[in-house]
Amino acid sequence: MANNSQITSVLRETRTFAPNPTFSRTAHVGSMDQYRRLWESAKDDLAGFWAEQAKDLAWFKTWHTTLEWKAPHAKWFEGGLINASYNCLDRHLIAGQNNKAALIWEGEPGDTRTLTYQMLHREVCKFANGLKRLGVAKGDTITIYMPLVPELVIAMLACARLGAVHSVIFGGFSPEAVADRNNDSKSRILITADGGWRRGKTVPLKANVDLAMEKSLTIEKVIVLRRTGQDIVMKPGRDLWWHDLTAGLGGDCPAEPLDSEHPLFILYTSGSTGKPKGIYHTTGGYLLGAQYTHKLVFDIKPDDVYWCTADAGWITGHTYLVYGPLANATTIVMYEGAPNHPSEDRFWEIIAKYGVTVFYTAPTAIRAFMKWGDQHPKRHDLSSLRLLGSVGEPINPEAWMWYHETIGGGRCPIVDTWWQTETGAIMIAPLPGAVTTKPGSATFPLPGIVIDIVDKDGKTVGTNEGGFLVVTKPWPSMLRTLYRDDERYQKTYWDQHPGIYFTADGARRDEDGYIWIMGRVDDVLNVSGHRLSTMEVESALVQHKAVAEVAVVGKPDDLKGEGISCFVTLKTGIEATDVLKAELRDFVVQVIGALARPDEIRFTESLPKTRSGKIMRRLLRDIASGHQITGDTSTLEDYSILANLRSDQE
Ligand code: PRX
Known about the structure:
- The protein has 21 helices and 30 strands.
- The chain has 650 residues and is α/β, with parallel strands linked by helices.
- Among the domains are: 171 residues, ANL, N-terminal domain (Rossmann fold), CATH 3.40.50; 125 residues, 2-Layer Sandwich (GMP Synthetase, Chain A, domain 3).
- The strands form eight sheets. An eight-stranded mixed beta sheet has the order 12-11-8-6-7-14-15-23, with helices on both faces. A seven-stranded mixed beta sheet has the order 5-4-17-16-18-19-20, with helices on both faces.
- Strand 26 and strand 27 form a beta hairpin.
- The chain is globular and about 70 Å long.
- The N terminus is likely disordered.
- Bound molecules: adenosine-5'-monophosphate-propyl ester.
- The site of adenosine-5'-monophosphate-propyl ester has 20 residues, from helix 12, strand 20, strand 24 and strand 25.
C-alpha cells in the first residue's frame, strides 16, 4: 500500500455530455434532482432504503432485520427466505413471461440457440434434478469450468436452486489453477465440457480437468457436457455425461427457500501476489445489488436486448450476464468466442443481427477495436444501440470518445461503471438519464452507496487531490468474507481505516464532485516526491495519433526515486522509430508537464495481460528494472509476450 498520503493528479478533461432529454423522459431516474434526492434519502436511512428496494425481489418469507452491522461483518435481510434461481426464472413464468427470450446464444463457429424463460426454467430444473441424483444438497460446493455456453448459466442457476454454492473458474485457467481452487473450496463435483471454441481452435477443457484431478483432493464426480465433440477420455465411476445424467428427468424441481445469508457463490480473484482470494457472496443482498444496479445503471426496459461481453467466469459475468439481467427478466445475448474470429467485426455483426440495445464491455476490448480500425464497425448497422457500458479498468478519455462516436453514433450515453469482485455490484456510475458525463469519470456513487476519498489517516482529501477510495457504509452486495480466511479478509480490506472498506484504488473528486478513478494504489509512481497515477500518464500517451495502447510503470531511479517507463503498442501500420520515441516523450510533457517526462519508451507488439484483460504491470515493472520475473504468472494470457519484451530491451 502507498505510504504517502496524497497522489498528485494531473489529468484534466473538460468535455461534458448532458443526457439526451428524450432518453431522460423515459429513464428510471430522469434528472439530477431526482438522483440527488434518492442519494440523500438513502444516505440518511440506509437500511430503510435497501428494505424498500428489496421489495423488487420475490421472498418466500420477509426478513425481520434489514441490516446487522458488526464491522467488518454484515448480515442483510436476516430472517428472510429467498432463492436466486426462483427470482431469475419462476417468478417470470408466474408473471406470464414464459415465451420471452431469456438467452440468445451464439457459438463461435456460428451455431445459435435461443432459450425462452420457460425453456431455461425447464433445463435448470432438469439439471438440478440431475445434481440431486448425485446427492448434491444445500451447502455443497460445486466447481464449474466451462466454455461460455447456455449450460454454464444452467449449471449456475441449478446450483442456486438447490442452495449449492458455485465456484466458477474461467475456462482459460490452467489445470494447476483449477486444482488449487478445487482444494480451497473443497468442491465435491466439477462440471465441465469436452472443450470450447476459441479463435477457431478447441480449448481442451476436459483434458485440463484430467490433469487437475490428479491434485484435486475432494472432487468425487465430473459431469461433462458435449460441446465440441473432440476426443476425450471418460474415467469410469468418476466421469459422467451431462446428457446421461439428465436423461429422463422431469422439468420440475422446486426452488429451495434459503436464508438470505446463505452462500450463493465463491469466486476466486488472483491477488497481485500469493494465493487467490475466495470472495464469498451470499444470496439476498447480492441478488438485490445485482438486480437494482442492473435496472438503474443500464436503465433496463422490458424490450431491451442486452449484451454483456464478459465471461461468466468473472464477477462481471456473474452479476451482469446472469443474476442481474435474469432477475430483471431481460433478454440476454451471449457469445462463446473471440471478438476477432473469424474477423475483427464479429461483435458488430452480432449487435446488428440481434438488434442489441445495451452493450457492456471492457476498455481493453475497446482499445483493441480502436487498433483494428473503424472500418469494422462501419460495415454494420449499429442503430439499435441505445446505451453503452464500460467496466474493469479506467477508460481513457480517448477510448471513451471513440466508443461514443464510432460505436454509439454520438447518441448513446456511456456508463463507466466502477466496482470490484468484492463489491458484487456497481458502486459508482452515472445514471444515464440523470447525470452529465465527462469522458473518463465514473461520476457519482449510486443511491445507497456511501464513499469517500481519504488520505492515509482517513481524512477526506480536498478537491482535485488524489487519495484512497473507500466505502464508508455497508452495502447489500458486499463480500461477507474471504472463504475460510476471515483474518485475511480483515487485513486486506478493513485494517487501513478501521470500520471503512479499503478498495485499494486511488481516486480524486473534481470541482463538480465527479469521481475520477486513478487505478490501483500499487500502480502509483513516486517521481521526485510526486505521487503520479500511471493511468494518467497512459491516458496522456494514448491521445497521440500513433498510439494504440500503453502501460506505464515505475523503474528505480537514483535521482528521482522512480523513473517513468512506458510500454507502447502502436496502431497498425505505424513504424516504430527513435524519432517517434522522442516525439512521444515531448507529447507527454505537453499534455501533463515536465514532471511526467518518460524516461524510456519501449515499443511492443502487445502487452502482458491477465485473462480478464488487465495489464500485468507487476511483470512490466520487473522487466523495466531489469529484474527476473518473480511471482505468480498463472493468470497471464500469453506467455510469448514476456519473452518478446525481454529480448527487446533497450
Ligand atoms: O481497479 C479497479 C478496476 O478493477 C478493479 C476490480 O477488479 P475486479 O475485481 O477484477 O472486477 C472487475 C469488474 C468489476 C477495481 O478495483 N476497475 C473496475 N472498474 C473500473 C475500474 N477502474 C476504473 N474505472 C472503472 N470503471
